[in-house]
Amino acid sequence: MSKFKNILVVASHPDDEILGCGGTLYNLKKRGAKISALFLSDGESSRKHPNINKLIDNRKRQAIKAAKIIGIKKITFGNFPDNSMDSVPILKIIQFIEKEIKTIKPDTIFTHFDHDLNVDHQITSKAVITACRPIKNQTVKSILFFEILSSSEWNISAKNKNFKPNYFVDIKKSIKFKLKALKCYKREMRKWPHPRSIEGVKLLSKTRGSTVGLSNAEAFILGRHVEK
To answer: What total of structural domains would you count in the chain?
Structure first.
């Protein structure tokens, strides 16, 4: 992880960045890494609510507040339809991500596992892979896929496509900051025994940690890593 200096998190919705890799991002910040986040959708517009614009604005403010806790310095918000990204030609999504990559020039990208239950997560993952194809002058050398509670583990239709991590990060010292950042997203968090609860997040960190002899960990699938 010492090679990760310029990080871009590409997430479908604000809150995915903290659920998926909040502890790891905090660790990277402490090591001096530059961290940016790209949110493709607002995470609210699919809900039938009379004050939907207010909800969207609140979600953006929550993302900014959470970013300050974790150490994300730059945030870009996209306007793709929430929970309906499959209604958009994927080329548009790819080009939007490519534009951000050209601006930020990240060496490392964290994004969604492509077999999540949530369709936006699936499309985000596929678009990132295409936008990061290993062509000449590609700055992205490492791609890691994270899991999202109540999405990654809920997809029972993907035969032999469960989330099977092969890269683990010790977040014993950063779990408290991850949980603090998650509390910024009050509407997205649920009560136990829902997996997307504070207790559920703690339990997952302990489960992933115990897999590799740690107290708390975040787990990823390392999609690609180019070493020079």
So the answer is: 1
Q: Which domain holds residue 146?
A: 6-225
Reference 114, options 46, 208, 12, 6; nearest CA is 12
Render pLDDT for 8-67 as a digit per residue (tens, 0 to 9): 999 999 999 999 999 999 999 999 999 999 999 999 999 877 899 999 999 999 999 999
pTM beyond cutoff 0.85: yes
Domain membership of residue 181 (yes or no) is: yes
CB atoms within 10 A of CB 95: 13
Is residue 1, in this structure, part of any structural domain at all? no
Domain of 18, CATH number, reads 3.40.50.10320
Which amino acid is it at 137? N
Q: What is the CA radius of gyration of the chain?
A: 16
